[in-house]
Design a protein that fits this description.
Helix content: over 70%
Number of helices: 5
Order of helices and strands: HHHHH
Strand content: under 5%
Distance between the termini: 42 Å
Number of domains: 2
Structural class: mainly alpha
Number of strands: 0
Radius of gyration: 24 Å
Length: 151
């Protein structure tokens, strides 16, 4: 019961700080684009959102690790998920090409080093991974529906 009360207080404090920052930024909105005060408030709100994002991610990772180490079935499922993810990435990497695509303006990206063969390979890997996962999701949805029909 004590932990619930502490967490509730922490959440209300975070909400209050967020509300104060947003209201402060909204009250200082200016038509002048070069106004340094507006930039300061935007940077402050962005920094606060980065802090909240990092804190949320860290808490999620800590609790996931805690759950994995305390529950053997969760550890087994997590290991299977990691192996499956690695398999999808390996297949996607094998399918991806390192050829630089030809499109209008590509010369600029090649000249400044932004677009290289390795970058093209990674982009292709990401695209193929997305396609493979999409197909697997469609198969899972269809199988789930068929499973419900035959039960």
């Amino acid at each position: 019961m004590k932990l619930d009360k502490i967490l509730s207080i922490v959440l209300w404090v975070l909400l209050a700080v967020s509300a104060v920052l947003i209201v402060s930024m909204m009250t200082n909105i200016s038509e002048n684009e070069a106004d340094p005060t507006m930039g300061t408030w935007i940077n402050t709100n962005l920094s606060w959102s980065y802090i909240l994002l990092g804190l949320g991610a860290a808490i999620a990772v800590v609790f996931a690790l805690f759950n994995t180490f305390t529950d053997k079935t969760a550890a087994k499922k997590g290991g299977i998920a990691l192996v499956f993810t690695a398999a999808v990435l390996v297949v996607s990497y094998a399918l991806a090409s390192d050829a630089i695509p030809q499109f209008y303006g590509v010369e600029k990206f090649v000249a400044d080093g932004t677009l290289t063969a390795s970058v093209s390979k990674m982009v292709g890997t990401g695209l193929y991974a997305t396609y493979v996962l999409f197909i697997l999701v469609m198969i899972a949805v269809a199988a789930s529906s068929l499973n419900k029909v035959f039960k």
